[in-house]
Design brief:
18 helices; 6-stranded parallel β-sheet; 7-stranded mixed β-sheet; 550 residues
Length: 550
């Protein structure tokens, strides 16, 4: 059996996934179904995998099912380009979440002896979690080289030398070149975007890598790499069930310059021919449900403003029965585009409104005002799109008055769902540049202070605001939660029922959840989800069984 060249692994933040998962369900414990010992045993048998990690134990002695995280587009892209370059590849996700996934990795290491193991840090949000996952990989595959990619390793300089290599920005070109370097065909220091750990732990940055990672620079956002193409991912390489929600991207980067955000500036789009190819290939595999990963689907690059409209027209022409949702700006969503999005299968949009105060929006450099936000929501409603609004508290310049304007905006606008969270300070975001020096900003992440507020006060205002919005009858949820439930095998309408029940319980209105809805949720969580998970687990094990055949 040929040696494995590349083993690609993924995990999402376990602390975030479990804490949020359990916390949400505890708030709706009166309606969220749990399993007693007999029900767990029956479901465990149907799942076909004996793994205690599939369950979250409750203090009551009952159990909650722990579903897997979403498929990783980054891994599929890397696997596709490496396979196309002639290398042997394999993908395993949920590697730290489930014991049975660790066993899959152990089997692959014994049977195929991978030369290079790649880990995406896209959804590993802290240095500690990345370090723990790298330690796990070293214990499972001690002889393999390890390469890290994704935004967390790029952002955290302390991670640049944690593994043997780190890749900054798009990794499709770098991963193939790195495999060639292991064959002695390429010098690693010539691979743009690569950091190399030396024997003593020192880090060597290859050509252009320090710039891509913004090493030693503050307040300067990353740039999208326009020197690479966006591949057509081959999801047949990815061992997961097809009746879940898959990620898809039509572009990379963002043409706007919101000061709180360090996301890659610039806009690189895919050709419509590639989009058509992917949608048709995926439909042949049974994949028709998507979450669009573009930072903003509804804007085209400066030289192709109608790009999102043309993507929708393509989807309508293909008529594949697609269901999808996306990020959108309130000032980009026109009636024409919203109409085409709905006809193309879009059911919901995530609006990053962020504030209901025009002065704060100007300080954020959002490029839209409160009036634009009302109009964007009105456009979404006119065309039957579920509209989520995201709001943050504590941006430099925030005061009690601007916070009150934000809460009042949400109460008056009444989006289908709303999320209110604390400002997160990113050192590469322009908010840390000299242009904001007047606010005397200090700190990082969720622990910060500036001239008009500190994170402790912001956290109290978030709690106060959430209480007010719940009392006003607003749904404290988001479009992504519905995507999560759909990813567990629920239909869109079923995911909406489940999300609505959670929101009602969060505002203490569990009595509004009728017997019919409670019965339906019980059937979904204890029936539909385990049935879907059984198929997903079979898909995850199928490649291993195939590789063990003579």
């Amino acid at each position: 059996m040929r040696r494995l060249d590349l083993l690609l692994l993924a995990e999402e933040s376990l602390s975030l996934a479990d804490d949020e998962f359990v916390g949400q369900r505890l708030k709706m414990v009166k309606v969220w179904p749990t399993f007693d010992d007999a029900e767990r045993a029956a479901s465990q048998s149907a799942l076909g995998v004996n793994d205690p990690d599939l369950w979250v134990p409750m203090r009551s002695g009952r159990h909650m099912l722990r579903p897997p995280h979403r498929p990783s587009l980054a891994l599929c892209n890397l696997a596709t380009v490496a396979r196309d370059a002639g290398y042997e590849v394999a993908i395993v996700d949920n590697v730290a979440r489930y014991a049975h996934r660790k066993r899959i990795v152990e089997q692959l290491v014994r049977a195929r002896r991978p030369r290079l193991v790649g880990l995406t840090t896209t959804f590993l949000l802290s240095e500690a979690e990345v370090a723990a996952t790298v330690a796990l990989i070293r214990s499972l595959a001690p002889d393999a080289k390890i390469v890290l990619g994704g935004p967390t390793v790029r952002r955290r300089i302390g991670l640049h030398g944690l593994a043997d290599y780190a890749v900054f920005g798009s990794g499709e070109h770098a991963i193939v070149q790195l495999l060639k370097a292991l064959d002695g065909e390429v010098d690693p220091v010539d691979i743009r975007g690569l950091a190399i750990r030396g024997a003593g732990g020192d880090v060597t940055y290859a050509d252009g890598s320090r710039d891509l990672a913004r090493v030693g620079r503050t307040g300067e956002a990353y740039r999208a790499r326009d020197d690479e193409w966006i591949p057509v991912p081959d999801w047949s390489l990815y061992p997961r069930a097809r009746d879940t929600v898959y990620p898809i991207e039509f572009s990379r980067g963002c043409k706007y310059n919101c000061f709180y955000c360090a996301y890659d500036r610039g806009k690189v789009t895919r050709s419509l021919d590639d989009v058509r190819d992917e949608l048709l290939r995926n439909a042949d595999l049974g994949i028709t449900r998507y979450r669009v990963g573009d930072s903003n689907f509804t804007d085209g690059p400066p030289r192709y403003a109608d790009y999102p409209l043309d993507v929708c027209k393509l989807m309508i022409d293909l008529d594949l029965g697609l269901e999808w949702s996306c990020y959108s700006r309130v000032d980009d969503l026109t009636d024409e585009l919203a109409d085409h999005m709905r006809r193309a299968g879009c059911w919901g949009v995530f609006f990053g409104v962020e504030s209901g105060d025009d002065r704060i929006l100007k300080l954020m450099r959002k490029g839209h005002n409160v009036a634009d936000a009302y109009e964007g929501l009105a456009v979404a409603r006119r065309h039957g799109l579920f509209a989520h609004v995201n709001l943050i508290v504590g941006y430099p310049g925030e005061t009690e008055a601007s916070f009150r304007n934000t809460i009042d905006f949400a109460r008056r606008a009444r989006p289908d769902s709303v999320a209110l969270g604390q400002f997160y300070l990113v050192d590469k975001a322009p908010v840390r540049s000299a242009r904001m020096d007047a606010f005397a900003i200090d700190g990082e992440g969720m622990d910060w202070r500036h001239r008009t507020m500190d994170s402790t006060r912001a956290a109290r205002l978030v709690r106060q605001g959430i209480d007010e919005l719940l009392k006003a009858g607003l749904e404290l949820s988001n479009e992504m939660r519905i995507v999560e439930y759909m990813g567990w095998g629920m239909r869109l309408d079923e995911a909406r029922v489940t999300s609505d029940a959670l929101s009602r319980c969060m505002r203490g209105a569990d009595g509004e959840v009728g017997l019919e809805a409670r019965s339906r949720i019980k059937e979904l969580v204890c029936g539909t989800v385990p049935r879907w998970l059984a198929g997903d687990l079979r898909a995850a094990h199928r490649p291993i069984e195939a590789r063990q055949c003579p």
